[in-house]
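Progress report, Aim 2. The chain analyzed during this reporting quarter is listed below.
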Amino acid sequence: MARRFRVSSPARGPAAVVRALTVPDLVVLSLLAERPMHGYEVVAELERRQIHDWAGVSRPQVYYSLEKLQRLGLLRPGADDEPAAGPERRVLTTTAAGRARLADALERDDWTTQRERPAFLTWMALSWLARPGVFASHLQRRQAFLREEIAREKRTLRAVEEEVGHPYHEAVWMITLMIGQFERELRWIDKVRREAGRRAPAKNPLNGRFTDLSVAPAARGTVRRAP
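Predicted structure tokens for the chain:
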């Protein structure tokens, strides 16, 4: 579910929830601040920019945001608007109020103080219960996926650099960050694979802070770790 950002009003209750801006709202506001577009074009441009790699925004959410932001006065019809063409073809642009709300949202601390919870990290925490062979095979599968993603992101990076014409652009920074994170995870998995044969439960489960989930049953001899 999209995160809600209360960016200007301290009001509470249903009306405040309606006025709250979600991540899809902010993405739509940002895109229409670049230039006026109609709904179909917004969806197509977000897909071209591979929105699913950096924000959870679906096609229905785009159209809901377009309607909501117009009601709030944060979007208005553009100069080339043709209402008769239908909602998907109605050209919209961000208003001054919309730019102000977007700027307010971008000042929030929430953007810089959150941690991701990757599914692979959750799997790693629970993997001591996996059947024999699954731990090793999943590490290999993850590495294959990461290599594919690195290759894809490098292709995207080349296309972005060609489009923007210089390396000092947020898209370039975002993609190089993703590539760096994937490459670092690849090296980390190599290390885990080398050390997997020495995996063992915590030695001091009652005295330490950082104990794994397998401590109690493993200590009782009821769970056997898979290699």
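The first strand starts at residue 4 and ends at 5. The longest helix spans residues 134-164. These observations will guide the mutagenesis work planned for the next reporting period.
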